[in-house]
Amino acid sequence: MTEQWGFFERKTKDEQMRILVDSSWETRSPSESYTELLSVTINLLHMTSVHPARRELVHMLERIERRLEQSIAAGGHAVYVGRINTPRRLELYYYADAERFDREVLRRLEQELKPYRILTYSRPDPQWERYSFMLPSELEKALIHNAQMVYALIHRGDHIDRPRNVYHWLMFKRPDDCSAMKETAEQLGYRIEDARTPPVDRPEFPYALVISRWDNVRLETVNAQVRELLPLADELGGTYDGWGSMMRQSFLRKGYLGIQRMLRSVGLVRRRETNREM
């Protein structure tokens, strides 16, 4: 099974966290013996004082993370599951084979990286409770998906700051709940589109609702809309099923892609003709 890394932000009453987690471990396990939680904490305030330039700081943190990977996970008795980043610290988490992992590795790392004031810690966590804390909620999963979609649009040349119709799909178990959501969506400034048939793999939600709003698709914009719509759907026993929009590209970008498609089609014809001659 492949890794499923997701990055998202979480705000508690105490602090703002940025979490990177491999969600694939939610459905797989390396071994029942991987019950030891290992954590490595990097003091970011100290690191910033040593490396005030942001680029230099990032490069140093990347080198330290690679070194930790080489020392902790490379031996085959520990797996890296994610990290939590706050303004003050960076915490990296691993789960290790309680019987086979050499805890001296942590002590040696502390000595080797002593100038950076790195602290290591291990404790039993057979239920993977720390990992469960790091897993995204349904809303956080939607925000991860938002980031992936927006970055994909940017990569394809979309001008994400240009307004366009942004569509949202919601599904419900009862027609009354669907109607209630329609009224609320209109009050919030959304346009009601034609309802569409729900996916066949979600028969428990037979009533679909499609709404739209004229807006840009900057990440903060779609995140705000999802934060608004997903809880409303949940309150009515429904589910938020995602968003979509048409791409907005510059004239030059469209022309460039059109030429690319034309050249690719010519290349295909030529290859086919060559194959026939052979």
Care to describe what's here?
This protein has 278 residues and is of the alpha+beta class. The protein has two domains: 5-134, 2-Layer Sandwich (Alpha-Beta Plaits), CATH 3.30.70; 138-245, RraB-like (Alpha-Beta Plaits), CATH 3.30.70.970. Helix content is 42%, strand content 26%. The strands form two sheets. It has a six-stranded antiparallel β-sheet with strand order 1-2-4-5-3-6. A four-stranded antiparallel β-sheet has the order 8-9-7-10, with helices on one face. The protein is elongated, with a radius of gyration of 24 Å. The protein starts with a strand and ends with a helix. Residues 4-133 form the DUF695 domain. Residues 144-244 form the Regulator of ribonuclease activity B domain. It holds the Pfam family RraB. It comes from Paenibacillus sabuli. This is DUF695 domain-containing protein.
Oligomer: single chain
Give me the side-by-side strand order of the main sheet: 1-2-4-5-3-6
Q: Distance between termini? A: 42 Å
> What's the structural domain tally?
2
Strand content: 25-35%
CATH topology of the largest domain: Alpha-Beta Plaits
Number of strands: 10
Using only C-alpha atoms, the radius of gyration works out to 24 Å
CATH architectural label of the largest domain: 2-Layer Sandwich
Query: Largest sheet, if any?
Result: 6 strands, antiparallel
Query: Helical amount among residues, as a percent range?
Result: 40-55%
Supply the number of helical segments: 8
The best one-word shape is elongated
N-to-C order of helices and strands: EEEHHEEHEHHEHEEHEH
What low-confidence regions span 5 or more consecutive residues with pLDDT below 50? 251-278
Q: What's the CATH class label of the largest domain?
A: Alpha Beta
